[in-house]
Amino acid sequence: MWSVEYSNRQIAIFQSVELLRESRTMEYRCLLGARNFFRKVKPTLSPLATSMESHPIRLRNLHPLRFPKRETIPRCLSTPERSTRRRCNTLPAGTPQSFNYKGENMKSTITLMVGLLACLLPSSSVLAATPGPSRPNIIVILMDDLGYGDTSAYGATTIQTPNMDRLAAEGVRFTQGYATSATCTPSRYALLTGRYPWKNQNAHILPGDAPLIIDPGMTTLPGMLKLAGYHTGAVGKWHLGMGNGNVNWNLTVSPGANQVGFNYSFLLAATQDRVPTVILENGRIAGLEPEDPIEVSYKKNFPGLPTGRANPELLKMHPSHGHDMSIHNGISRIGYQRGGKAALWVDEDLADVFTSKAKQFINEHKDAPFFLYFALHEPHVPRTPNARFVGKSGMGPRGDAILEGDWCVGEILAELQRLKLDQNTLIIFTSDNGPVVDDGYKDEAVEKLGKHTPAGMLRGGKYSLFDGGTRVPFIVRWPGTVKPGVSDALVCQMDFLASFATLTGQTITQGAEDSQDVLPALLGKSPHGRDELVLEASGNTAIRTTQWFFIPPHPGKPVQSDVNIETGLLMTDQLYSLSSDLGQKKNLAGENPEIVAQMKARLKKAKEGFQEP
Ligand code: NG6
Ligand code: CA
Questions:
Q1: At 532, phi and psi to the nearest 5?
Q2: Looking at the structure, do residues 272 and 394 belong to the same domain, yes or no?
Q3: I want to staple 119 with a disulfide (CB 3.0 to 4.6 A). Which of 88, 106, 224, 344 is the partner?
Q4: Atom 3 of ligand 1, nearest CA residue
Q5: pTM for this model (two decimals)
Q6: Could you tell me which of 256, 235, 234, 247 has the C-alpha nearest to residue 294?
Q7: Contacts of residue 137, Cβ cutoff 8 Å, sequence gap at least 6
Q8: What is the distance between the alpha carbons of residues 449 and 464, in angstroms, rounded to a whole number?
Q9: Ligand 1 — pocket residues by CB below 6 A?
Q10: What is the domain-level CATH number for residue 364?
Q11: Distance (Å, rounded) from C-alpha 168 to C-alpha 428?
């Protein structure tokens, strides 16, 4: 029997360590001692939280002689699983039977904290927790294919993005902020796992029925924040696979976001141009009627159903390349589907639906620290802005979709302000990869582009090893803590994990090995970020340092003709000096053999044990 006491008042009793462990709200707060524990577990006790610094939480074993019964550990478990279970079964050696969270017995307390925490973890992910200095809400707004030059915050004059600009004006705008990859799946994999995507051979653009590519045992950004007491939610685009590869979409699809650290998820499985065209809430298709089940295939069409290829007369938006399979809402997609009519989304409403869900999540967790991964689809294809934005940019659906995305950002900012959460919320605004103009639909993006340069001054775009593929808008806003400004520090989305672990007082002891703690840079307190970063496009890699950008020889076409983007692939070394040649126009490899050799060696070292595919 365990008593949990605060300021000499008993606030909870647990029969056993097992129950203490199972009490999901209790576990983190007891262990980490943050004031939000009181808000969450007992709202009426919240005033007490203000004096947390001077009062300890006390855990007391009321029956010192009755230790929890040992569980029989099944022999079929693997050795690490067995040892984890064993740890869960016993109190750590040396644990006193009465001790405080703060003050005396601190060492023992930490021992117990770590011991109990280990019981709560997925088997292979081990984080040692120490009380964290700060737990702001964290929102990552991740745009899809928004380029470095696509916002007025980054110098666009052909389009105005007032809400994104407001983020920049009130936060730190990074000029050298990166996704790891020039396409979505690998980029998001790195953001969520803190691990280079080329270490996972499945981290490439996935079909909508692909299995989950994040191992549920891995350390992840939401998993780490969950351990720090955050309520974690993912809303928007997923594209990291769902299920085990043989999905029945009419049942709960698992594993998915909820198995890799998110308490809540409201997601489209892959992309808006891929089937299934439905949203899954916690792994279950929202609005699906049992009498009209949905079926999905990436191999063949269902008999008698129209396709974009065979029935162009049914289309309101025509493909320019690919995207000629199942038709939904007058738009043909990648892949085939049948049924599930009531659950199929309306493309033009998606931004509204996701934004209102994001706002709902914020409202529901406004009193606890929350982490929201808000993955908007704008301006990825098919670009289907709501009627409110149609024609507003003068650049066709691509520009209108950017305006729609800007509106979504504004809605989140307004909601935070309304809830008075501004000062306590860190927002990161960024994009999963660089821009593309024609990505497979005839949507006037090329014709109406005018003078707009989606990648700004950068060379290349989506799919490219050149800088335009991975250098993206990257803004951190945290009023009161982050001083507004512009930073040239080299930072990457992959670094969120290690940086926010530091922010929330956690130490990563396993996984996330490529995530670097660049918190001072992210908070605008240091001009120094990373020293180097490996970048990836279609499985090929390049490396950049603070000055140099090196692309080793790669076979392949120099231009991807369907999207009209330079790939950066050449059979010779390419070396660019980013400080003097932002547009990567002058290859300096020939005149700098020593630097080429150094960059080659750095890339080789970074990739040791991992080959090019
Ligand atoms: C490509 C699609 C493109 C887009 C991309 C993924 C074709 C011809 N092109 O294969 O339209 O969906 O995959 O984009 O099918 S990403 O931003 O999710 O990586
Ligand atoms: Ca993308």
A1: -150, 160
A2: yes
A3: 88
A4: 439
A5: 0.81
A6: 247
A7: 362, 365, 369, 370, 371, 372, 421, 424, 425, 426
A8: 20
A9: 144-145, 183-184, 205, 239, 271, 273, 321-323, 334, 380-381, 433, 439-440
A10: 3.40.720.10
A11: 10
Judge whether 196 and 513 are in contact, CB under 8 Å. no
Q: Is 88 helix (H, G, I), strand (E, B) or coil?
A: helix
Closest ligand by atom to 431 CA: 2
Q: What is the pLDDT of residues 451-484, one digit of tens each?
A: 999 999 999 999 999 999 999 999 999 999 999 9
Distance CA 434, CA 438 (A): 13
Tell me: the pLDDT tens digits for 209-250?
999 999 999 999 999 999 999 999 999 999 999 999 999 999
Exposed, middle or buried by CB within 10 Å (0-12, 13-18, 19+), for 601? exposed
Q: What is the domain range of residue 324?
A: 295-338
Residue 332 shares a structural domain with residue 361: no
Per residue in 516-527, is it b (16+ CB within 10 Å) or e — as a string? bbbbebbbbeee
Report the C-alpha gap between 577 and 41 in whole angstroms: 55
Ligand 2 centre to CA of 160 (Å) is 21
- Residue with token string 């992309």: 271
- For a substitution probing ligand 1, which of 145, 181, 184, 321 has the most ligand atoms within 8 Å of its CB? 184
Tell me which of 489, 522, 555 is where a domain ends.
522
Q: What confidence tens digit (pLDDT) does each residue in 585-607 have?
A: 999 999 999 999 999 999 999 99
User: What b-and-e string marks burial along 318-331, b requiring 16 or more CB atoms within 10 Å of the CB?
Assistant: ebbebbbbbbbbeb
Q: Specify burial of residue 299 (Cβ count, 10 A radius: 0-12, 13-18, 19+).
A: exposed
- The best mutation among 144, 298, 334, 383 to test binding of ligand 1, ranked by most ligand atoms within 8 Å of the C-beta, falls on 334
